[in-house]
Amino acid sequence: MLIISGQYNKLRLGTHVSKLDVKAFSAIAAKKAAGSIGAKAIEPGKYTVILEPAAGIVLLEQLYGSLDARSADEGRSFLSKPGGKTRLGEKLVDERVNIYADPTNPELPATTYDGEGMPLDKMSLIEKGVVKNLSYSRYWAQKKGVKPVPGAANIIMEGGTQSLEDLIKGTEKGILVTRLWYIRPVDPQTLLYTGLTRDGTFYIENGQIKFPIKNMRFNESPVIMLNNLDALGKTERTVSGESSQSALIPPMRIRDFTFTSLSDAV
User: What is the DSSP secondary structure assignment for residue 38, as one 8-state letter?
Assistant: First the structure.
């Protein structure tokens, strides 16, 4: 369910309407809209950020979509190595990162077959920071003489125990990001992407939201982002505003997130 107030929204999804507290979510959307009046400009640069799930998913789905054996084998991926080798089995991100797919998860049900008719089961993608599986289409598996491996049915990332409010309280200086959009690739070899903040961006100081800030453009890689992971909140269901991909992911506090310029976009 997408709850909207003006240009600002609070994104919530559920498998049943009884799980949606519309009054509470509407109050959050209204508070963010009112709290964004009089946004100030700050200098671009590297900042500690707290990415709400609706912001984090648009970068995580780029990582998820890149876990493909063919692009890695052909040297077109951040997972490629010289000599046609790949980084499968290597630790690439913080050891607290655990991402998997499970079409039978009751909070995030998904199709149990992929587009090639292969059954989809629970599958680890990244475990303790290590890349565990790459997808193989029927064509590429036959070419390589291996069994086909279907792509992931959904995205589930394990979280921590802190609430979003706890993450804010634990931040000396930083930026709270509600959502990201206009995601575009910059360098596929490093998974570098650019995009803009939207729907409420706020400056944090001494554990409190101090004032709203104008939207900014970022340049960031989900691989670098997950290496700069500082803290994880509780996992919740969200959806990407770029692709409509549903996911269960936590809010994340990230060090040294790169903002490159200001934006006049509302």
Answer: T
